[in-house]
């Protein structure tokens, strides 16, 4: 059978778990374009899993149907999705529920009281929640944590914003095409071990198995700045032939991670710009 596993962000950015190693190896070695089917709302490459370059959004019953068929090459209107216990072909039309069956299942399984009972005291929490010890005070006591850091961006902020300056002698950090998503700009998935963020965490003594994800470490600006444009599927035309968060430092043309390049440019107070196509962000 099939169970509902799409709670919260389960189907996003690999949170549903890794692929079998042999499958991952085959995808990488043969540079395969693999597909995912899901009833979520994200269909750009690498979102469901870093190695899925194509994703199809569909209703939950169709997700089940394609899972049974095991291929996106199947024509569900004409081809069988499997066989029955006698070896006879089974088609989608044979197992597709009628509206009456669906409504009967809803009536038998769901009632308004279920939601009322669940949400009436949702903010109170259970006994375990109430027993959690938490610090109190007028201001937040910043912990020595690799998850939450006090950001420096408001330290020298004045009541009046600084005047807008002209951008002169800037360098291009990224030259991007169309449909660069928020996940390309600030990925929320796994933290690559050998990327700038991974190296930073390893330097703090965090084991790779404890990296968690960019999404889980959004409260640490040191991790997030190192993860900006670090999506493994980013195509930056400043560094042709690469995939991921790479660029070139000009005028030398030295290849570097986008984070490392930005730090190098900052040493000389060099302004940076990003060129992108349609649907940026």
From TrEMBL:
SUPFAM superfamilies: Aconitase iron-sulfur domain, LeuD/IlvD-like
Residue stretches making up the Aconitase/3-isopropylmalate dehydratase large subunit alpha/beta/alpha domain: 1-70
Limits of the Aconitase A/isopropylmalate dehydratase small subunit swivel domain: 199-281
InterPro entries membership: Acnase/IPM_dHydase_lsu_aba_1/3, Acoase/IPM_deHydtase_lsu_aba, Aconitase/3IPM_dehydase_swvl, Aconitase/IRP2, Aconitase_4Fe-4S_BS, Aconitase_4Fe-4S_dom, AconitaseA/IPMdHydase_ssu_swvl
Keyword Metal-binding: yes
Gene3D superfamilies assigned to the protein according to its UniProt record, in alphabetical order: 6.10.190.10, Aconitase, domain 3 (3.30.499.10), Aconitase, domain 4 (3.20.19.10)
Keywords: Iron, Iron-sulfur, Metal-binding
Keyword Iron-sulfur set for record: yes
Cofactor: [4Fe-4S] cluster
Pfam family, one: Aconitase
Coiled-coil region: none
GO terms assigned for molecular function: iron-sulfur cluster binding; metal ion binding
Entry similarity comment: Belongs to the aconitase/IPM isomerase family.
Taxonomic classification: unclassified sequences, metagenomes, ecological metagenomes
Protein name: Aconitase/3-isopropylmalate dehydratase large subunit alpha/beta/alpha domain-containing protein
